[in-house]
C-alpha cells in the first residue's frame, strides 16, 4: 500500500494525537497534543551558541537542529506518555523562516509521517503563533480579535473562524520584535534583543517622549519612526558628550512600542463588537506589555487570552495547535511539500 493510500484509510478523529515539530529559527522543538490538551513540550535552543555571533547564523542553526531533532521528538513522545505508533498526524513548520533550518524539521517530519503512515500537515509558523491561544484557553472559539506581535509580523486580525481571518491592520515597515531587536543593538545589548531590552527597562523610567507610531490610517502600525527616534536620541547625546540613561531609553522605547499595540487591539475589539482578544508572538512574552494588556482589557470588559510566555516565543505546541485546526479542515500536505522562506500573512481585508 502506498503512503497516500495508508493516509486515506485513516479515520478522522475528534481529538487526535498530533506531534508538532518546529525548526524555523534557533529553537528545535517538538510537542504532543491530544485535541486541545497539551501532553508534552520540548524546546532545545541554540540561542546561547548564536549569542556568541550577535544573532542567528543560519548554518549554525541548521547544524544545531540536525543534532537536536531526534532527541526533541523522542522526548516529546516519551514525556507525553504515548507510543509513536499511536500518533494520528505530524504537523511541521514549513515556513516562514531560515530555509536550511526549516528543511531539517520538514525532512524529519516527512520521514516520521511516512514511517507511521499518518497525515503530514504543513504549518505556517505565524499561524502557529496565533493558534497558541487555543491551548491557553481550551474554550476559546472564534470570533475574536487576535493581537499578533512577533519578530516578523505585527498585526491586528479579526479571527472569524478557525481558518478564516481578516487583517484589520498590520505593520507598514518593521515588526514590533524587529524594533526591539534594533533598539537592543543601539543600546549595545546582546542577542536576543527583546528580553534584554525588557531587563534593562526595569531599571529605567519612561521619561523620554518617543513618537507614537500611528501611521494615521486605521489599525496599521509603523515602527521605523520610533527606531529612528531612539537612534537619533542616543547618537545626539553621544556626539554632544552628554550623559544619558540607557535604562530610561529602554523603558521609554518599550512603552512607546507596546502601548500602541494595546490601544489598537482594544479599539479593534470595540469596532468589531468582540468581547475577546487573543494574543500571540514573541513580543507578547514582554512583561510590561502583558501587564498593560491585562489591565486595559479588564477596564474595558474584554476577556484576554494570554498564552504563558514560553508559548509566545518559539515552541512546537503552537505548531501542533495549528496542526489540529488544519487536521480538522482536512488540509494534509503531500510528501513533496517544500520549505518557504517567506509566507505573507495575507492581504489586508478578508481572507
Ligand atoms: O514571534 P517570534 O518567534 O518571531 C517570529 O516568529 O517572527 O518572536 C521573536 C521576537 C524577537 O524579535 C524577540 O526580540 C521578541 O520576539 N521578543 C521579545 C521578548 N521576547 C522575545 N520582545 C520584547 N520583550 C520580550 N520579552
Ligand atoms: Zn516565531
Topology, element by element:
Layout: H1 3-9, E1 17-22, E2 27-34, E3 37-45, H2 47-51, H3 58-79, E4 89-95, H4 99-116, E5 120-124, H5 125-136, E6 144-149, E7 154-159, E8 165-170, H6 176-186, H7 193-201, H8 224-240, H9 246-271, E9 276-280, H10 287-299, E10 303-305, H11 317-328, E11 349-350
Parallel strand pairs: 1-4, 4-5, 6-9, 9-10
Antiparallel strand pairs: 1-2, 2-3, 6-7, 7-8, 8-11
Helix pairs in contact: 3-4, 5-11, 6-7, 6-8, 6-9, 7-9, 9-10
The structure holds 5'-O-[(R)-(carboxyoxy)(hydroxy)phosphoryl]adenosine and zinc ion (ZN).
The helix tally amounts to: 11
Average the pLDDT over all residues and give the rounded result.
95
Query: Are there runs of 5+ residues with pLDDT below 50, and where?
Result: none
Radius of gyration: 21 Å
State the helical fraction. 40-55%
Identify the overall geometry. Answer: globular
Report the strand count.
11
Give the topology string: H per helix, E per strand: HEEEHHEHEHEEEHHHHEHEHE
Task: Give the distance, in angstroms, between the N- and C-terminal Cα atoms.
Answer: 38 Å
Largest sheet: 6 strands, mixed
Please identify the structural class as seen in this structure.
alpha/beta
The main sheet orders its strands as 10-9-6-7-8-11
Amount of beta strand: 15-25%
The distinct ligands, each listed once, are:
5'-O-[(R)-(carboxyoxy)(hydroxy)phosphoryl]adenosine, zinc ion
Amino acid at each position: 500500500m502506498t503512503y497516500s493510500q495508508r493516509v486515506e484509510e485513516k479515520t478522522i478523529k475528534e481529538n487526535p494525537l498530533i506531534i508538532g515539530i518546529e525548526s524555523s529559527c534557533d529553537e528545535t522543538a517538538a510537542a504532543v497534543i491530544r485535541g486541545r490538551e497539551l501532553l508534552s513540550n520540548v524546546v532545545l535552543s541554540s540561542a546561547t551558541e548564536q549569542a556568541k555571533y550577535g544573532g542567528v547564523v543560519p548554518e549554525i542553526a541548521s547544524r544545531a537542529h540536525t543534532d537536536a531533532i531526534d532527541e526533541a521528538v523522542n522526548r516529546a513522545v516519551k514525556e507525553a506518555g504515548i507510543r509513536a505508533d499511536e500518533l494520528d498526524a505530524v504537523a511541521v513548520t514549513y515556513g516562514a523562516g531560515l530555509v536550511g533550518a526549516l528543511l531539517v524539521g520538514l525532512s524529519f517530519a516527512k520521514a516520521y509521517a511516512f514511517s507511521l503512515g499518518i497525515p503530514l500537515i504543513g504549518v505556517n509558523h505565524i499561524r502557529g503563533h496565533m493558534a497558541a491561544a487555543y491551548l491557553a484557553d481550551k474554550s476559546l472559539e472564534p470570533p475574536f480579535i487576535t493581537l499578533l506581535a512577533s519578530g516578523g509580523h505585527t498585526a491586528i486580525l479579526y479571527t472569524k473562524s478557525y481558518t478564516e481571518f481578516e487583517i484589520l491592520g498590520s505593520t507598514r515597515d518593521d515588526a514590533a520584535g524587529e524594533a526591539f531587536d534594533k533598539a537592543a543593538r543601539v543600546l549595545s545589548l546582546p542577542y536576543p534583543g527583546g528580553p534584554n531590552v525588557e531587563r534593562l527597562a526595569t531599571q529605567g523610567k519612561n521619561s523620554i517622549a518617543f513618537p507614537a507610531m500611528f501611521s494615521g490610517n486605521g489599525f496599521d502600525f509603523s515602527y521605523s519612526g520610533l527606531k529612528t527616534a531612539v537612534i537619533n536620541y542616543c547618537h545626539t547625546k553621544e556626539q554632544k558628550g552628554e550623559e544619558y540613561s540607557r535604562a530610561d531609553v529602554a523603558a521609554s522605547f518599550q512603552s512607546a512600542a507596546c502601548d500602541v499595540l494595546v490601544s489598537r487591539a482594544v479599539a479593534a475589539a470595540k469596532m468589531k463588537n468582540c468581547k475577546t482578544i487573543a494574543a500571540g508572538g514573541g513580543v507578547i512574552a514582554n512583561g510590561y506589555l502583558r501587564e498593560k494588556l491585562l489591565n486595559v482589557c479588564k477596564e474595558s470588559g474584554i476577556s484576554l487570552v494570554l498564552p504563558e510566555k514560553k508559548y509566545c516565543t518559539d515552541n512546537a505546541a503552537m505548531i501542533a495547535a495549528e496542526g489540529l485546526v488544519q487536521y480538522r479542515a482536512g488540509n494534509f500536505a503531500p510528501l513533496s511539500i517544500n520549505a518557504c522562506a517567506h509566507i505573507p500573512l495575507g492581504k489586508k481585508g478578508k481572507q
